[in-house]
Structures are given as C-alpha cells and as structure tokens.
Amino acid sequence: MAPQVVSFMNMKGGVGKTTLAVNVAYALAHVHSKKILVVDGDPQFNATQYLLEDEAYLEHVNDEKKGTIRDIFVPRRPGKINTVKGLAKPTNRSKMALTDCSVSVYNPGQNRGKLDLIPSTLQLMDIETSSRSTEQKLANYLKEKANGYDYVIIDCPPTISIFTQAAILASDKYLVPIKPDPLSVLGLPLLERWLADYTEDAGIEVEQLGLVFSMVRGPMPQAMREVMDELRAARQDTVFAEHLSVSTHVARSVQSHEPIFIYKRNSKPADQILKITGEFLKRTE
Ligand SMILES: Nc1ncnc2c1ncn2[C@@H]1O[C@H](COP(=O)(O)OP(=O)(O)OP(=O)(O)O)[C@@H](O)[C@H]1O
Ligand SMILES: [Mg+2]
User: Pocket of ligand 1, candidates 9, 18, 184, 211: which has the most ligand atoms within 8 Å of its Cβ, to mutate?
Assistant: First the structure.
C-alpha cells in the first residue's frame, strides 16, 4: 500500500511546524500503531535534531554506507576513492536503499507502529542551484521506496525553495501550522496562492488538510483571540478544533529528544497533541 504523504508547510519561520510535525508523527506511531516515515526536508535539520540524539546523528552521517535526504537529491560525490581506472563512479541515488537513507527512531516490534526518519544535513544547502529535475527526485524516491508506511510526514523549511517544491511534488496533502498573530496570518494567502500556481503548473493536486493553530499563548491576548475567531469564521472546517499552546514542557521535550506525550505525559500540550493527532487521522482516513 502506498502511504499518504503530508507536508507540514508555512512560509513563515518559527511558527511551530517542526514541533507539530515531529509530535504528530510520533503520536501516530506510538499511540495509533501507524508506520511512519518522517522526512526532514529542511537544511536546518531541526526535525532530525528533535528525533535523534547528537551521537546517533553523527554516527549515521559519518557512516559511508548511510545517507541523508541529500543523497536522494544528488548522487554521491566520488569522494577520494580511487579505482584502478580512475575515480569511482558516484553512487546511483535510486540504488540507495531506504534503510540506508533512514534511521529507526521508534520500533517496538510485534505489529506495533514504527517511526523512521530520513535525516537532513546542513550540506543540503549546496544543492539549491542544482539542475531543474532535482525537485522531482523526492517524489520519485518515495513512490519507489516508501511502500509499507501508512504516512510520510515531510517537515518543510520556511521558504519557497527547491525543498518546498520537492515536498509538494511528493505530497498528497499539506497541513499549515499557523501562529495566531495578525502578521503570521498574512502569510497564509501568499502560501495558498503560490501552491495553487505551482501545482497547476506541475499538473498535480495537493489538498489542504487543514490549519492548526500553534504556539498559542495563554492567557490569550485579545489580538490573538480575534485572529483565531476570524480565521475560524472564514475557514470553518479547515481549522483543526484543537490547538497547541506555548509551554515550557514543549521546549524542554525538544532538548530531551522526546515527543511531548512521552516527556510529560500528563500535561496540557501532551493532551493537545493527542487530540490534534486524532483529528489528523480522521481527516486522512
Ligand atoms: N508549543 C510550543 N511551546 C513552546 N515552545 C515551542 C512550541 N512550539 C515550538 N516551540 C519552540 O519554538 C521554536 C520554533 O519552533 P519550530 O522549530 O517548531 O518552528 P518552525 O516553524 O519549524 O521553525 P522554522 O521556520 O525555523 O523551521 C523552537 O525553539 C521550538 O522549540
Ligand atoms: Mg522547522
């Protein structure tokens, strides 16, 4: 079975995209026994840092046989390896197994869920100016290799770049984490306009799964409340009923590389994440 591919996307930076993507993905695997692949599509690799301890990450990227999302976009450089006939050929991307480009984050076995991660790397930066077909490569790779997962969750950077284009070309749906302040909300029509144009040019349809209010402060300032009410009134069902509050527990869960519902099981944000994940399932099933 082909997985459903969902991108978490917003052009605005620091609105909680990565935090939401990682926590929803983990809850799908841990609580709902789904098979999940998280793709870190951001050169800043925040999702990777959230899900992996530094040592595990370094071990993975320092292993010659292991890859990152970079290897999906560009073939391996020959490096310093010399053969009798000259430089070794670059590794063919499509020959690299998914198990080599991913890390197992959660896998309790016995028909339970699992969570794998295709990690990112700062070195992704240098492919920005690559050839035109590069943005199609993630879609091709996932189509070929991601069978068997229930969901692929792609964490996108806050820019319109080759990485957001690649994510959209690979996605069935997209979810917009949104911070309810007047300036952040301004970015929404821009994102939607860009997506409409880009998907029309590409000849594909990518459906909006919904908006999730994130980083909601409590007690809620008046302006925030107004933005939320207005957006709910204008968009009705597209806005998820549950939101994610700002909480120091969330910030600390990032530091400890654990999802909030494991780091602090009985807390408001843990509860919120589980509700958001339930809604995510309803909207995709
Ligand atoms: N609900 C929350 N409560 C407290 N801190 C949060 C919460 N959500 C996110 N943060 C913190 O805010 C910062 C930005 O969050 P996050 O990285 O999820 O945003 P982003 O939209 O992915 O950012 P970028 O645009 O840089 O990719 C991080 O330091 C994160 O730990
Ligand atoms: Mg992010």
Answer: 18
Residue with tokens 């519902």: 261
- Distance between CA atoms of residues 221 and 203, nearest Å: 42
Sign (positive or negative) of CA dihedral 199, 159, 172, 196: negative
Contact, 216 vs 180, CB < 8 A?
A: yes
Full set of structural domains in the chain with CATH = 4-79+89-284 (3.40.50.300)
Torsion sign over Cα 229, 231, 235, 238 = negative
What whole-number distance in Å separates Cα of residue 277 and Cα of residue 120? 24
Ligand 1: residue of 19, 24, 163 to mutate (most ligand atoms within 8 A of CB) is 19
Query: Which of the residues in the chain have pLDDT under 70?
Result: 75-95, 128-132
What is residue 82's predicted lDDT score, i.e. its pLDDT? Answer: 45
Provide the 3-class DSSP secondary structure of residue 271: helix
Q: Which DSSP state fits 93?
A: G
Cα–Cα distance between 204 and 171 in angstroms, integer?
10
Name the burial class of residue 157, with classes exposed (0-12), middle (13-18) and buried (19+) by CB atoms within 10 angstroms of its CB.
buried
**Cα distances (Å, whole numbers) of residue 96 to 11, 54, 82:** 31, 24, 20
